[in-house]
Amino acid sequence: MLTLLIRTVLIYLIVTAAVRIMGKRQVSDMQTSELVITMIISQIASLPLENAERPLLSSLVPIMMIAAIELLISMLMMKSRKVRALICGHPIVVIRDGKILDSQLRLLRISREDLYSLLRQKNYSDESEVRYGVIEPNGSLSILTDEDVNSDGIQSEELKKQIEKRERLTENS
């Protein structure tokens, strides 16, 4: 019983340290890769608790290895847009000039009802009030008004390019 208690405390400390090293985010703010890594770490951490004969290092080493890989990927994502887009995805415009882009909703597998719910959470009663509605890589909705766009409030170069491309396509239609 004492062995199980010591193992539990050690695993708790190591997992807590690994998660702290990887960064502070709430589950709702996690990128897909971060959520997957968190789930894998929790599964690995449970193994020596379920089987007392299993060596503790058989879980601690993989947990630390996964944390190190996550740190490496995070650094690569900070340095490279391509790596970030590959791992996390990119923002997708779902509302343009007050009109919902159904093709983009289908691509994201989001219903209009889900989008309306996200709009209500942002205190918008309907899409006509929105210049651009953008689903961010973490799944949240960002709203850009005419004021935001005209004051160069768009910070993502990738999003700017996507908006400009859509506007060119519209002009050519």
Offer a quick outline of the entry:
It contains eight helices and four strands. The protein is of the alpha+beta class. It folds into two domains: 85 residues, no CATH class; 83 residues, bsu07140 like domains (CRO Repressor, 2-Layer Sandwich), CATH 3.30.240.20.
The shape is: elongated
- Beta percentage is 5-15%
How large is the count of helical segments?
A: 8
Fraction of residues in H or I helices: 55-70%
Q: Are there runs of 5+ residues with pLDDT below 50, and where?
A: none
Structural class: alpha+beta
Order of helices and strands: HHHHEEHHEEHH
Please give the order of strands in the largest beta sheet. Answer: 2-1-3-4
- Characterize the largest beta sheet: strand count, sense, and whether it forms a barrel: 4 strands, antiparallel
Number of domains: 2
How many beta-strand elements?
A: 4
Rg? 22 Å
What is the CA–CA distance across the termini? 73 Å
- The averaged pLDDT comes out at 82
